[in-house]
Amino acid sequence: MREPIFVKQNAKKWERFESSQGQGPDELADSFIQITDDLAYAKTFYPKSKTTVYLNGLAGRFHQSIYKNKSEKGNRFITFWKYELPLLFYKHRKPLLYAFTFFMVFCLIGWLSAMYDENFVRLIMGDRYVDETNANIARGEPFGIYGSDSEFFTFFRIAANNIYVSLVTFVSGIIFSVGTLYHLFQNGIMLGAFQYYFFSKGLGMQSVLVIWIHGTLEISAIVIAGGAGLVMGNSLLFPKTYTRMESLKKGAADGMKIAIGLVPIFLTAAFFEGFVTRHTHMPIWLSIGILGSSAFFIIWYVILYPRKIYNTAYGT
Predict the structure, then answer these.
(1) Measured between alpha carbons, how far is 57 from 20 in angstroms, rounded to an integer?
(2) Tens-digit pLDDT profile for residues 110-125
(3) What backbone phi and psi angles, to 5 degrees, belong to 148?
(4) DSSP per residue over 75-107, as a string?
(5) Residue 302: which of 220, 231, 238, 237 has the closest Cα?
(6) Looking at residue 25, what is its pLDDT?
(7) Which of 15, 17, 14, 49 is nearest to 313 (CA)?
(8) What is the distance between the alpha carbons of residues 257 and 244, in angstroms, rounded to a whole number?
């Protein structure tokens, strides 16, 4: 893109950013992200131009405005989850949607495979898990496996495993997004076969009310980690106007922020699995309340809230 066209397309936005510098650091965070994106582009294609100098100065003023006092760490922490992460969700809404779509297709494949092959569940879940669950069903405690370990041990084990799975799912995106799709495939197939198993035993709705108390947050976060992996992988595949390396750096940075931002969600899901899911005979209203609240939070924080603050910030 020629420099005059680049300036013409973005001049009004930069003027709006300059006029907003009197606001607090939280309100400036989303603008700072876009300014640094434009600065990176200008440095790549117009390294010695006045436009690059101007954007560098503007970015510097934004940086000082956001991080100027000693409470920087606390402000930065709040800004990240209140503005920066939701805006990344909005910016990369397409990769997140692709991850969700792929995952649902893989779940369906797992369900159908278990339906047409009675040995598929054992292949995916393992003989030990299936045999233990069959025994629990026979004695009237189909979900007794969730209470087989102590609360704290279950919490730490599940939290560590889920964070590990999400990071691997994200990092695998460096293999041209194929690695991330592979891990989404693994988890989708497992979930589809897992759910079919309980429905085939006549325990479908009961399994939803028990397992999805923690599964709503856990599975949602894994899908979002998949979206983060696609962000990084697609930045390598489709660099657009950036150099491939510059595009990869930007995609990797955004993807990592998304993956790190999932840690509180995984910790909450692990808490539910360790301390709540084991109470398999809790009132239905309580189970639905926890499940529904979790689903609402994901929809609000990943979809509705990011759109709202983006529209508020940019007046679209």
Answers:
(1) 15
(2) 999 999 998 999 999 9
(3) -80, -20
(4) HHHHHIIIIIHHHHHHHTHHHHHHHHHHHHHHH
(5) 220
(6) 53
(7) 17
(8) 20
* Among candidate residues 215, 203, 192, 229, the one with its CA nearest the CA of residue 273: 215
Q: Specify the residue for token string 């940086």.
A: 63
In the chain, domain spans: 3-68, 90-314
User: pLDDT tens digits for 1-57?
Assistant: 778 887 888 888 777 777 765 555 555 666 777 788 887 787 777 887 888 888 788
Comparing 85 with 61, which gets the higher pLDDT?
A: 85
140, 150, 95: which is closest to 281 by C-alpha? 140
Measured in degrees and rounded to the nearest 5, phi and psi for residue 283 equal -55, 145
Query: Is 250:235 a contact under the CB 8 Å cutoff?
Result: yes
Alpha carbon distance 145, 148 (integer Å): 5
Please state, in angstroms and rounded to a whole number, the distance separating the CA atoms of residues 229 and 241. Answer: 21
Query: Which residue do the tokens 């939701």 mark?
Result: 86
- Residue 30 CB coordination number (10 Å): 23
C-alpha to C-alpha distance for 107 and 113, rounded to whole angstroms: 10
- CA dist 63 and 69 (Å) reads 11
Average of pLDDT values for 193-197? Answer: 96
User: Has residue 70 got a pLDDT over 50?
Assistant: no
Q: Which two tokens stand for residue 188?
A: 């989708």
Query: Dihedral angle at the C-alpha atoms of 65, 68, 69, 74, nearest 10 degrees?
Result: 70
* Tens digit of each residue's pLDDT (9 = 90 or more) over 87-118: 999 999 999 999 999 999 999 999 999 999 98
Question: Any idea which residue has 């692709």 for tokens?
Answer: 98
- pLDDT at residue 28 in the model: 64
